[in-house]
Amino acid sequence: MPDTPTLLAGRYRLGDELGRGGMGQVWLAHDEILEREVAIKQIDLPEELAGGDAAVRRTLREARAAARLSHPNVVQVYDVLSLDDRTWIVMEYVPSRSLRQVITDDGPLDVYRTARIGLDLLAALRAAHRAGVQHRDVKPANVLLADDGRVLLTDFGIAALDDDSLTSKSDVLLGSPLYMAPERARFGIGGPPADLWGLGATLYAALEGHSPFERSSTMATLSALATEEPAPAQHAGPLAPLLAGLLRKDPAERMVAEEAEQLLREAVAATEGTASVPVGPVIPKPRVPADDVAAPAVPEAVPEKVLPKHNRKLIALVAAAVVLIAGLAIFLANLPSSSSSTTAGDPPATARPTEATTATAAPSTAATGAAPSAAPSTAVSVTPSKTQGSGRPALPAGWQVWNDETGFSVYVPKGWTSSKKPGATMRYFRDGHGHVLGIDQTDQPKSNPVADWRSQRDVRLRGGDFPGYKEIKIAPVAYFKKAADWEFTFDKGGAQHVNNRGVVTSAHQAYGFWFQTPAADWSTYRKDVLDVVFASFVPVKD
Fold first, then answer.
1. What was the pLDDT predicted at 157?
2. Model's pTM, two decimal places?
């Protein structure tokens, strides 16, 4: 860190550099008064724009913009410093990768994950616009995908406030041309529609791996932005109408936030359970299927320009088609089949079991109204507690050993079918009557299962995944190295009871157990099924 002090304002001790961009550097630091980690951004402008008090003005504006926002999808600003002709912003430290880094490292995202990210970013932008703040630089580099599952919008460095007299002419052209709205590039005109363009371009990049107007040079990009239409996204699926609406060049014709939110929610519902990369962290969790995603109340509307009637009709027709297709898929999945079943809280089976689990699955209880099957009888008494190296109980009558191809082993009831989607990490077991066991895994465990479940709970509830949610507990349990249970009920296709157990089995391995039954069956199935599963589970050898 040449020429950079190690202790700022007698309080913030700088550590590793977290990142560097056109607006400056970001450091990890330790707040020695509050004993917490923070991120500190050192503002640095290009030489041609750094004259006078430009850096101070820009820092003040970024801090003012972020300080006016209190939203779970916006990085929080704690402090602003002006020291030795340098300016610094002290922010919430979010262990994360930027969306740009994820695209670069892992490749484009699937539709489900992109839609979930889009919902969070749209929520952040709507909160900003209600507060009179425009971001003006929405792009993948300014989107953080946190290790705890959150999606956050950061870097309000060129944000404009409705009542801000500090904005100068030089600020107008700052930002990335790859994600800049045409009206900003040509006329310097901002506003909420320009931020929605940035959202559309960002989601396009998430799906395609590049921005809609990426060219060989900045001038070529600006020329394409002025004279060409964006190429249709090849991997957008149900998000195609959204991208088309957000990337309309005329801001008066551009899709408004309410319609964008509706299309994003429909895309989530249509693709739930298909994501090839988990959204969020670490101690894994099963996803709720498409028909179990409930849209929460629409946030307070903000005044925005209304689309011409012909555009609104087109969007409505496309959205209706998406809903009809999703509904048909759900209907067909609920028909009796010899190889799959659909339950109230689990995606339909997509593969035949690979071992001895070959019994035909019965139709879903939620779909047929049939009484649930009797719980498997157990021949031995088991206890759910388990520590590393403890013995495995004898195989109960009516059970079989499942040796998974990934290395773990567990007892499962005979007659339960198994499925696992290609590329997924979750293995599901079902009896066809609404009783579901899912086992997921990761080689990057979190150190605190309780904190991880709380974080995941907040993310899932914000997304409206569990209608009628009632929490029973999030608490540590004695199981392997460390573990925690997240137990709750929710209402979909009848009252459902769920227990999620996150367990760290070694420094390099963790598992997530999702167990769901109709609420009326919980006490029996918890004792006769889940306790056997926990007692018999053997993780992969580290």
1. 56
2. 0.51
